[in-house]
Amino acid sequence: MGYAVLSAFRNGLFLSLLLMSVACAQSPPIHARKAIGDYDFTQHGLQAVHLRYPNLTGNGLTVSIKEQPFDTTDIDFRGRVVPTPDANNPFTDHANVMTTLLGGAGNTAATSRGVAWGSRLVSSSFSRLFPDTLPELRSLKVSVQNHSYGVDIESFYGPEARAYDEQAMLEPSLIHVFSSGNSGLDGATDGPLPGPFATLTGEFKQAKNTLVVGGVTRQNVLESQSSRGPTADGRIKPELVAYGNNGTSESAALVSGTALLLQQRYRNRHGVLPSSAWVKACLVATTQDVGLPGPDHETGFGSLNALGAVTVADRAQYHTGTLTGSAPQSITLTVAPHTARLNIALSWIDPPASADAPKQLQNDLDLWVEHLETGTLIRPWVLSSALHPDSVRLPARRGIDRVNTVEQVSVSQPAAGTYRVWVQGTYLNSLQPYALAYSLDSAMTWFSPTAGAMLRAGEVQPIRWQWLGDATATGSLSVQFEGETGWQSIAEEVRLADNLVWWNAPDQNRTARVRLVTGTGTYLSDFFTLTRPTHLSVLLNCTEADDGLNQVAVTWNKQPGVVAYQLYRLGAAYLEPVRQTADTVAFLSPADSSYVAVAPLQNGRPTIPSFLIDYSKQGVGCYVANWLSRLPVADTARLDLTLSTRWNLTAISLERATEAGFEHLQTIRPTSGQLVHSFTDRPTAIGPVRYRLRLQTATGESILTSEETVYIVGPDEQVVFPNPVVAGNPVSVLVADEEVVGTWITADGRRGSSALLSGGIKHMPTMNLPPGLHILQLKTPTGQVRMARVLIR
Q: Cα(180)–Cα(229) distance, rounded to whole angstroms?
């Protein structure tokens, strides 16, 4: 999905004017690429978060999607859209997908559920690149704003970046999340950093107090098009990466949704929202390493680990404080034996720098960790901030950071014992709040499947985990189905550091678990459910029947081994359970919502619901799925009927219109299994003839279909109208043949233009014909010729 692009070339003169006078700046023209993609919420532990923390939905929080509007009528945003003037403009697919990933309710289908599916949704316009005003954001109660757009590559700290940094100081609980851009292959061929580096799309992405997100593939490998850092002063941007099926737009949306869940968990415990620095600390303290060991200028501190971040927040593995001078502050923590990784992140909101400053960091904080048993000091990871092609490719080393507002200490296979985490203000211009977060990780963590997971049977499914043990280790993956004692192999010689195996799941409704066996241990997943897809269709929709019959019925495919199904309707915002049934047919009350879905029950729990359908818009009427004449013009009327169901139906009668009303022509009795019927009539009248069907039910209802009209012409006849015709206007021709060749002949016998005429009502052009009497010759495929006189005016 490409990020939305603000396409403009800001040359040096424009930038100079912009720096001298922000008020004179005008936003460049906007273009958004169409957003199409499939999404895998097993990646980053997002599905596991939904299952382990079902009450974390973003409820009570508001996210703003700053770009072009999303569709406020989308049923996946139902009941949660906060109206704004920006939302009144035409929506785009790109904005709709971003909003779905962020906060889709999952009403349309299970795959349309976003990360923070309980959040309120606000549309904001990116026609202005500067931040929205604080009064506006505060009035809407926005705590996260997603920015999935960019301009040209801009490598400087400008007035827009400064404005975002200043807003973060004024509103610490508001976090702005930006996509890094899709210009990783469009780097400059000159300048200090040719190639993919320093390709962030917009100077506003150089801000210190925002969060910038790059893109990775489903295999957690950096996307080649993903824009990357460093910033103009050598800082790490993006801070992290996430899956983007078609670009970094999606990556940013997933991180914005995770930020909402973190905010909700903190608010539930403390009664207030956390600072954006706290959110960044939780995210950075739990990332999965990607690419070079430690942070780098391409993937930041690593790949999003939503499960880890939410777990850190849930276990209160964090600390906040304020530095007032050079005196250090510290916390202690205990590392248990066999811990695979200790990961600590420090983050703070830094005052804005002047737009032309060579270095943006204003308040310099330092992080280090001390192992109390040995006295060993562990410094954070640092990267070279030199803007040189060789420097930006150097791996991270331990040292003292003098450029970033986020610092990370990570230790693989840490020694057990007590650690003291130190924070010190090396250089402070003012009081400086900060946030610490830490994770204590085991060697193996399942991302999918986890307890409650539902995988689609008969499809290739991802099995995901986080491995923090030996990077060269391998293992075997197998599955065990409930009720069986043996294990079936899925894959052998699995490289554990890949964290992923694709499994061709059997086409069965089963309960199962998987097992990963390594040289150092065996890791069992929770039990999960395999479920076949359910396809819902409409049997009959008699809500508008003339006799007052008010009945709707839907049906679905019977699932092997399933004894009951859960029926849903669309409520004010989400799907609501209606009732359970053992049948595969359900009769609905038209007073309920016309939107309906169904899910099989396995082990007493609903599984994946079918796609939501609107029964009023499925093309199915009262018993009638299709009713039409085979040819609109013919010498014999041939009419076809397709029934949606024959339930309770006893007779079908064909009726033809006369001057006195409709007369009965014939009656058939529908037989078991037969849903398609044909009727034939050869009336003596020439011209339009109207037909309808009368359906009789066993309970006494009489249902009339709509009318179908057939223009009856004799086998050797034709009708031409209008006649006379104004020169230049076509004449309409009715003949029984499906195709004829029409040729104009003047009154004195000269042949004019010819045309192949087809369709029910055929049209012969009269262009370039002089006024007067003309002959229209009609020649059939069998060579039969007919003539009609036409007066041209």
A: 9
Buried b (16+ CB within 10 A) or exposed e, 265-286: bbbeeeeebbbbbbbbbbbbbb
What is the DSSP-derived secondary structure letter of residue 37?
A: -
Above 50 in pLDDT, residue 214? Answer: yes
Instruction: Give the pTM.
Output: 0.85
Average the pLDDT over 597-603 and give the result. Answer: 95
Determine contact, residues 82/122, Cβ cutoff 8 Å. yes
Task: State the pLDDT at residue 36.
Answer: 35
pLDDT digits (tens, 9 = 90+) for 366-385: 999 999 999 999 999 999 98
Paired tokens of 334: 């205990």
Angle, in degrees to the nearest 10, between helices 276-284 and 306-314: 120
* Per-chain mean pLDDT for the chain: 90
pLDDT at residue 188, rounded to an integer:
65
Kindly report, residue by residue over 79-133, the tens digit of the pLDDT: 999 999 988 889 999 999 999 999 999 999 999 999 999 999 999 999 999 999 9
Phi-psi map region of 673: left, alpha, beta (phi>0 left; psi -120 to 50 alpha): left
Please report the pLDDT score of residue 19 as a whole number. Answer: 30
Task: Reply yes or no on whether the pLDDT at 422 is more than 50.
Answer: yes
What is the amino acid identity at position 291? G
Is pLDDT above 90 for 609?
A: yes
What 3-state DSSP class applies to 553? Answer: strand
Contact 515, 525 (CB under 8 A): yes
Could you tell me the pLDDT band of residue 190, with boundaries at 50, 70 and 90?
low
Residues in contact with 114: Cβ distance below 8 Å, sequence separation at least 6, in sequence order: 76, 99, 100, 101, 102, 103, 104, 105, 106, 253, 257
> pLDDT for 131-159, tens place per residue?
999 999 999 999 999 999 999 999 999 99
Closest CA to 394 of 505, 524, 296: 296
What is the structure's pLDDT at 265?
Answer: 98
The two three-digit tokens of residue 202, written as one number: 């917009």
d(CA 3, CA 534): 34
Q: Where are the alpha helices (DSSP H) in 61-143?
A: 93-103, 134-140
Residue 34 confidence (pLDDT) above 50: no
User: What does the pLDDT read at residue 24?
Assistant: 31
Residues 6+ apart with CB under 8 A from 252: 3, 146, 147, 148, 177, 178, 179, 213, 242
Report the distance separating Cα 384 and Cα 236, nearest Å: 10
What mean pLDDT is predicted for residues 680-694? Answer: 90
Spatial CA neighbour of 624 closest among 638, 639, 642 = 642
Name which of 166, 247, 170 is nearest 207 in CA terms: 166
- Positive or negative, the CA dihedral 618, 622, 624, 628 is negative
Helix, strand, coil % over all residues of the chain, rounded to 5 = 15, 40, 45
Q: Give, to the nearest 10 degrees, the angle between helix 248-270 and helix 93-103.
A: 30
Helical packing angle, 248-270 and 306-314, nearest 10° = 10
Name the nearest CA neighbour of 278 among 433, 117, 423, 430. 433
Q: How many CB atoms lie within 10 A of CB 782?
A: 6
For residue 252, give the H/E element and its range. helix 248-270
Give the DSSP letter of residue 134.
H
* DSSP bridge partners of 63: 121, 144
Dihedral, 204, 205, 208, 210 alpha carbons, nearest 10:
100
| CB burial of residue 639 (10 Å; 0-12, 13-18, 19+) | buried
- Total residue count of the chain as it appears in this document: 793
Q: Please give the Cα distance from 226 to 683 (Å, whole number).
A: 70
Q: How far apart are the C-alpha atoms of 267 and 555, rounded to whole Å?
A: 44
d(CA 345, CA 295): 12
Phi, psi of 713 (to 5 degrees): -130, 150
